Amino acid sequence: MAAATQREGAPGHGGGARYLGRGIYDVAEVARLLRRGRGQIEGWTRDSWTRPSLLIGELGAFFSFWDLISLRVVAELFVRRVPHAQIAIGARHLATRLGTNRPFAHEHLATVGSGFFAEISGTWEDAGLSGQQAFGHMVEPLLRPIVFNDDHMAAIWRPAEGVWVNPAVQAGAPCIDGTRVPTRLVASLVRNDEGEESEHLADVCDDYRLTPDQVQQAVSYELQLAA
Fold first, then answer.
1. Do 14 and 92 have their domain in common?
2. What pLDDT does 195 receive?
């Protein structure tokens, strides 16, 4: 399957604001969105005596949208049993070859089996082995639900049907696709903490100019995160 080919303009950084258009997430929110344990995220993003971190947040104590996407890739690599050391080697190699300090948010990253690969100059290299092998015909793109900008960097993530994560919208909080309405807000209006109906769906639709399908997709997504 081919990698996503849609394009979006890069998020704005107007006014010199450090966080503008970049998304902002704390450890707890990253763990929630990736459906991982907080300790796991901290283990990947903090140095220890035995091994260095795989990623340090771009925003000091917080993470950017590119950090979120990068950690999603790291999580997938661990699922595929790629060793920590190989991920670290690959990250350094890709950073140099792709010219970005966030190579795991780059369109040309892909993974197959217990290795991970990047498309560089029209060929696929085994990044975990510092480019020593090429398996282009075997590579399955990892970043399918991502929309990329003209620099081939992640711009929008659609983690579920009807949901987008856009760093230029609501600081990167998951929202109903194409809107500024957070899925978490909609879910909280429709269902209370006990899962019972707290407000009529029709009223939510009217208040936020949404369709019933949009509301149901938002609720479904939030229930998946909470599972």
1. yes
2. 52
